Amino acid sequence: MDLVLVNLIDGLVTGLLLFMLSSGLTLIFSMMGVLNFAHASFYMLGAYFAYQISKSVGFWPGLLIAPLIVGVLGALVERYGLRRVHKYGHVPELIFTFGLALLIEEIVQFFWGRAQVPFLAPEALNFALFSISGNAIPAYKVFMIFISMAIFIGLLLVLTKSRVGLIIQAALSHPQTVETLGHNVPLIFMGVFGVGTALAGVAGVIAGPVLGTFPGMAIVLGSIVFVTIVVGGLGSLWGALVASLLIGWVTTFAASYNVGMMDVLTGLGFTPPEDLSESLFRDIWSLTLPQVGPILPYLLMVMVLVFRPYGLFGKRDV
Amino acid sequence: MTSLDHTRTRPAAGGLSLATLAPWLMAALFLAVMPFIFADNSAITIMNQMAITIIFALAYNMLLGQGGMLSFGHAVYMGLGGFMCVHIMNWMEDGAISMPLPLLPLFGGLFGLGFAMLIGSFSTRKAGTVFAMISLGVGELIAACSVIVVVFFGGEEGVSGDRTYGIPVLGVEFLHQIEVYYLTAFWLMLSAALMYLFSRTPVGRMANAVRDNPERAEFLGYSQRWVRYYSFCASGFFAGIAGGLFAINYEILTEENLNLATSGTILLVTFLGGVGFFFGPIIGAIVFTLLATVLKLHTELWQLYVGAIFVATVMFFPGGLAGLLAMHVAPWRLGKMGVLVKPYLTTLLPGVIGGLGLAGATEMLFHAREAAEGDEAMGLFFMEVSSHSPVAWAAVLAVTAAGFWLARRGAPGLKAAWDEANTAPRGRR
Could you tell me if residue B357 is inside a domain? Predict the structure, then answer.
């Protein structure tokens, strides 16, 4: 039971981290109809910038400055890259962001090398806050939870309560009308893109010390983020939240419970083959839950697409 | 979706004529003669790789160019076909079955087809972004499975085989690279011809229609989903053939043949060549293979350059190399190519020099940061320079700046010349 609680907290951390990426991605998608393949690359840039800043002035300024730089970069990419490709259609846009993701990975390798860089959590948070029957919960994890919660609530308030948020919401569904009312819609797009990438940057800064800061971090998390927003329903913020938490918990729980297929199958009444090493089905018999953990999100996505093509919360036909 | 969609196809002429057959005969002749011109083993290896990439890129373009489906997981079908072929090779070695080796790619193709039929049944429901995401997810799923399902994928080290156990064909046992080359070339011609013919069938034509305007195609009574499904299956088949050839050529397949990096590379190759034309991917595969081979020999940063070229292509030449060539058809017909020569020399040449200068500066920066302490000498464009010398830095930066400045200054002239070259004399087209 105690392990369940620990896993719940770990899964919450992963889920909220995923949500910081998927919320920006899904917002950008519902606005421009383009899925930003390079979104996770901005997450990686956030981690690397924060690492560079932390080397000279420490972690806390990095938490503030790195996402700002990432956001500005994102806005520039929208203004001078995406907007140019936009006229060719959605597929070239997707290809452009894919190329950008490749390029950013190479650039990161150029400046910081192929190996992992020692980006560490700040000393001030380097202690165990409390422990659940022997399992220490580091203060940094709790800090991650609070940061992502704060950002989510802030985003929700801005989007639903403020004037800017209302204009953004209107521009999502009726860009032409908003433009006739005298608002600068391309500027709004650029802003949303910038804010979305800055959110990814924040996620990178706070995840870098925990998940490791290395050139492959974008690819590792990137595909999962796409799975998340497809499962949640493209363009749905609530869907992104639910799917992020779901995937966070599913992967965490799968990684920590060592249930073997052997036990499941014998429990169901099958008998294991005499000589396991020769059997054609030996992989099925020797399968364990932590082993399949990493592919569960993809399986979930395929299931959702087969049985509910619009995702859990998706309404729009995309 | 506009500028991608210029598959210019002439109205289907009835029957065969020498004019329609000529490119194919020339290609066949070219393939037959090449090993005599480039006879050493490494050249033949590169040509084999090129041929396999061409088949794969053509299969990929059946989706992207002809069907409007962007896939981030097409390596799966090639990889699965390849894995199946390695297993068949191993069964041949055990004596469980026996057949001539040249038939092997067919089984790879059938396996790819079978898998495409399965995956396509739900992934082709939508085009565009949704299709792209599903292909990515399925690709990652199968790549991740390769570590789990050790029986089929062989885990981390992959599966390997030996191609020489098939029934000899005319006494050939495929011990040598050159024999494999002709086998690959044969399958290349066959698959390219079949893929071209597929694009001419009603299904192939409807794939174009569905790509351009799915709604209208539905009103004509065609199901967009089924049209996409047929293209997808055919593409999986030819990707499987490419996988079979890969298995014969390299005799080993690993997780690398299935993952996102391989799928991304084929997207890059196809787009670089140009998705709007049937022959685009062929150009792309040839240019990319050569470019990668040459760059790999000379610099560690080759992937950076390839990435930059790719992004530049998407931004400035969405038609790819084939699109660039096709742009010159009109000036050629009008006999005005001469108008373009001078602006090309005064604009594009400095642009290329500027680009090379930038690459040189990148190399020097890389060397200055990465090389061992005290090791300042580096080779750069056939010269020996010091990566710490201010003179060398000033020279490289000056060349870069001058190149880009000249290119920028010449751009309006180039545009004017381009308009002039595309205008028919006396206002007639």
Answer: yes
